[in-house]
C-alpha cells in the first residue's frame, strides 16, 4: 500500500533509482504488517523514474539496507494482530534485490493466488469459530426444551449453507491453484485472474455474512463481552477482510478484465 494510492496494488508512485549496480527506493507506506520485525520487506515500485505507474517491479529490501521511519500507529478497533503501522521506507542496496520478473507476472502467478487462498483459509477459521458458537447456542436451547426444535435451529441450518459455500470456495481455490501452480500460461490467463479475484471477494463477503448470522443466533450472549459465545473479535476481524485490498477495487479490476474475457 502506498500513500494516495490505497489498495490499488497494481499502481505505484514511488520508483526505483539506480547508481551503478546499486538501487535506492523511498516509499511512503501507510501500512506494513510486521515491518519492524521483518528481515525483508517486499515493496512494489515503478521500474524506473521514467516508467508508467503500472510498470512495476518488486524490491526485496533487506533489513541491513533498510531504514523504516514510523509515520503512524496501528490502533484498529483493538485488532493488534498484524502490527501494521505506517512507515517511510528508505532502502538502498545491491541492484540484485530488484527482482528481474515484472511485478505484473509475480502478482498474477504468485501473489494473488497465494494471498487469496491463504486469506480465504484464515477467514474460514474465523467462520468456523463463529459457527461453532452458534451451534453451541442452539444446542443449549434445544436441551432446555427436549422434543421441541428451537426456532434458531432453522437459522443455524441456513448458516450452515453459507458456511459450506465458503468452505467449498476456499478448498476449490486451493485445489485449482495447486493444479496449475507450475503452468505460467494458465496462471496468467484472464479467466484465472477473474476466478482468483472472485475467491477473495466471495470469501470476505461470505465471512461477514456468516459472522452476522451467527451473532443473531447467539443473541445477547454473542453481543456480550463476558460470554463464551462473544462474537466481537469475529465481527471486527471479518470486516477487515473486505477492507484489506478493498473488494471494490478488486471488482473494478475484474470489470476491466471482463470486457476482454472471451470465456464462459
Ligand atoms: C489487517 C490489515 C493488514 C494489512 N497489512 C498490509 C501490509 O502488510 N502491507 C500493505 O501494503 N498493506 C496492508 N494493509 C492495507 C490493505 O491491504 C489495503 O491496501 C488498505 O487497507 C487500503 O487502504 P484504503 O482503504 O485507505 O484505500 P482504498 O483502496 O483507496 O479504499 C478506500 C475506499 O475507496 C474506494 N475506492 C477508491 N478508489 C477506488 C477505485 N479506483 N476503484 C474502486 N474503489 C475505489 C474503495 O472501494 C474503498 O471503499 C492491511 C490492511 C489490513 C486491514
Describe the structure using short key phrases.
6 strands; 2 domains; Butyryl-CoA Dehydrogenase, subunit A, domain 2; four-stranded antiparallel β-sheet; 14% strand; alpha+beta; two-stranded antiparallel ribbon; Butyryl-CoA Dehydrogenase, subunit A, domain 3; 264 residues; binds flavin-adenine dinucleotide
Explain what this protein looks like in three dimensions.
The chain has 264 residues and is of the alpha+beta class. It has 2 domains: 81 residues, Butyryl-CoA Dehydrogenase, subunit A, domain 2 (Beta Barrel), CATH 2.40.110; 158 residues, Up-down Bundle (Butyryl-CoA Dehydrogenase, subunit A, domain 3). Helices cover 51% and strands 14% of the residues. It is built from 7 helices and 6 strands. The strands form 2 sheets. The chain has a 4-stranded antiparallel sheet with strand order 1-2-6-5, with no helix packed on it. Strand 1 and strand 2 form a beta hairpin. Helix 1 runs parallel beside helix 4. It is globular and about 80 Å long. The protein starts with 16 loop residues before the first strand and ends with a helix. The mean pLDDT is 96. The structure holds flavin-adenine dinucleotide (FAD). The site of flavin-adenine dinucleotide has 16 residues, from helix 6 and helix 7.
Amino acid at each position: 500500500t502506498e500513500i494516495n494510492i490505497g489498495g490499488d496494488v497494481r499502481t505505484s508512485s514511488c520508483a526505483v533509482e539506480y547508481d551503478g549496480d546499486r538501487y535506492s527506493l523511498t516509499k511512503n507506506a501507510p501500512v506494513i504488517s510486521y515491518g519492524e520485525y521483518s528481515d525483508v520487506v517486499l515493496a512494489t515500485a515503478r521500474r524506473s523514474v521514467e516508467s508508467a505507474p503500472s510498470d512495476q517491479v518488486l524490491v526485496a529490501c533487506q533489513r541491513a539496507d533498510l531504514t523504516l521511519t514510523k509515520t503512524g500507529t496501528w490502533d484498529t478497533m483493538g485488532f493488534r494482530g498484524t502490527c501494521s503501522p505506517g512507515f517511510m521506507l528508505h532502502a538502498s542496496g545491491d541492484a540484485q534485490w530488484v527482482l528481474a520478473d515484472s511485478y505484473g507476472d509475480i502478482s498474477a502467478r504468485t501473489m494473488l493466488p497465494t494471498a487469496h487462498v491463504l486469506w480465504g483459509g484464515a477467514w474460514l477459521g474465523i467462520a468456523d469459530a463463529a459457527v461453532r458458537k452458534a451451534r453451541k447456542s442452539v444446542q443449549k436451547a434445544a436441551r432446555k426444551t427436549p422434543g421441541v426444535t428451537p426456532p434458531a435451529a432453522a437459522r443455524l441450518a441456513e448458516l450452515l449453507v453459507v458456511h459450506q459455500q465458503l468452505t467449498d470456495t476456499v478448498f476449490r481455490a486451493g485445489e485449482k491453484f495447486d493444479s496449475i501452480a507450475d503452468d505460467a500460461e494458465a496462471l496468467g490467463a484472464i479467466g484465472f485472474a477473474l476466478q482468483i479475484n472472485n475467491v477473495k471477494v466471495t470469501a470476505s463477503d461470505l465471512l461477514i455474512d456468516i459472522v452476522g448470522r451467527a451473532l443473531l443466533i447467539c443473541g445477547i450472549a454473542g453481543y456480550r463481552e463476558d460470554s463464551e459465545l462473544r462474537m466481537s473479535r469475529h465481527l471486527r476481524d471479518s470486516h477487515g477482510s473486505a477492507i484489506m485490498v478493498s473488494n471494490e477495487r478488486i471488482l473494478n479490476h475484474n470489470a476491466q478484465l471482463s470486457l476482454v474475457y472471451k470465456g464462459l
